[in-house]
Amino acid sequence: MSRLFETRPGDDGLPGPQRRIAVIVLIFGTLMAVIDATMINIALPSIARDLKVGASRVVWITNLYQLVGAMSLIAFAALSELVTRRLLYIAGLAMFALASLGCALARDLEWLLMWRALQGLGAAAMLSIGPSLYRSIFPSRLLGSALGISAMVVAFGYASGPSLGGVVLAIADWPWLFALNVPVGVVVGLLAWRALPREERRSGGFDLLGALLSAVALGALVVAMDGVGHGAGTLQLFGLLLLGGGSGWAFVLRQRRVTHPLLPLSIFAEVRFSMAAVVSGLAFVAQGLAFVCLSFLYQNVMGYTPLETAWLFTPWPLVIMMVAPLAGRIADRVEPAMLASLGLGILLLGLVSLALLEANAAVIDILWRTALCGLGFGLFQSPNNREFMASVPRTFSASASGVLSTVRTFGQSLGVALVGLVLAWPQGNVQAALWLGSAAGLSALLVSLGRLRLRPTSQT
After folding, report:
1. I need a labelling partner for 349 at 20 to 30 A (CA). Which of 100, 108, 329, 357 fits?
2. Over the stretch 385-408, which tens digit does the pLDDT of each residue have?
3. What pLDDT, in 10s, does the model give residues 379-388?
4. Could you list the residue ranges that cross the membrane (predicted)?
5. Is residue 459 predicted with pLDDT exceeding 60?
């Protein structure tokens, strides 16, 4: 770990001591944003009871957080070039902490939802530029290792959210789930002001119309995918898809004409960047689909309790946490696409083994299959993210970071939607959905293998 903070002659990025503090800022900022996406789920029944609202309404506490974040990722990535990533990250952190206080003090659902939406905006501001900040903080020779830390932190956040929520609720009421963010946010904000790299602002305007079009397109598509998983009507889904597709088409036309585009379409001319985006999206479809499927498999088919199900999930993120930093370090020395392809092959084996799992399987059979998926995803994520960020010039780092976060969000959302679609079929079952996840993993592997013939790029 100490090698990450050594400064060598000719290094770009921050000096070692400042680099250490900046990484602490990114770790805690990411943890707060990611943990809050999952920690609150366990408190929804308590919140519904205290606020005297139904389950169908209280789930919007989770949905709104994710929806607002998805709608604003690309816009925030572009805005960071005008106000600098440092100031945007600090502003997002401050908004997140303030909104957390508002959530803790809210005593009716409407106010809680308003503060929750602002919390989602703050989280999106941080997550949209997180990978690009790692690129500016660390020297190029350590980019894979840095993104390995990022992957480890995200995995830990998703894994620990429900457990942390359960611990807090065992000793305190649900408002404390939000209140705990406030002191942490203040401390991390002060460290961010001191340590995050300063940079020049880009001259020119902000494409407000493009931001609105992207928000409508992304928001409509996320809601449509959520509707697929919850049995929305055909007319409603068609309208949402039409709205999302039309807004997306208008957004692309707008980006081709505007002087300062929200998302420079030229970055997609780099084939390795575009292929890394496709591979990432397909891999997150597979992971999102598997996570939901396994909940149904363990509880409805195999008869485990929700708490036992949570423990059966643990090997997946736990192995990612152990493997991702190592994979990132190796990716600084070998071809990242090759390592990512190896990880996808292992992930595919794990998904197929889960699809073949029998209803009376022993716990050890469940655990090694789940761990195999975690091993594959951990080997894949850091190298692929390195390929993603390093294949475009540094001037496009913020835009690439926004695309990376958006692809991850949509991949997971599409995976969840596909589970609902498969289970709604007359012959649909959990195993069929897991086979569909395996197909997504196979598609990701084939695309990843296809890029091995391309010349590696290393942009600065």
Report:
1. 329
2. 888 888 888 778 878 888 888 888
3. 998 899 888 8
4. 21-44, 64-80, 87-107, 113-134, 146-172, 178-196, 208-229, 235-253, 273-298, 310-330, 337-356, 362-380, 401-426, 432-452
5. no
* Domain that includes residue 155, residue range: 15-201
Domain assignment of residue 4, yes or no: no
CA nearest to 457, candidates 373, 277, 335, 312: 335
Model confidence at 315: pLDDT above 70: yes
- Reported confidence tier of residue 100, pLDDT bands at 50, 70, 90: very high
pTM: 0.80
CB contact set of 66 (below 8 Å; sequence gap of 6+): 37, 120, 222, 409, 413
**In which region does residue 231 sit, left (phi positive, over 0), alpha (psi from -120 to 50) or beta (all else)?**
left
Gap between the Cα atoms of 120 and 92, Å rounded = 9
Residues 222 and 352 in one domain: no
Q: Select from 23, 34, 21, 15 the least CA-distant residue to 405.
A: 34
Q: Which residue has the tokens 């997150």?
A: 284
Q: Is residue 5 part of a domain?
A: no
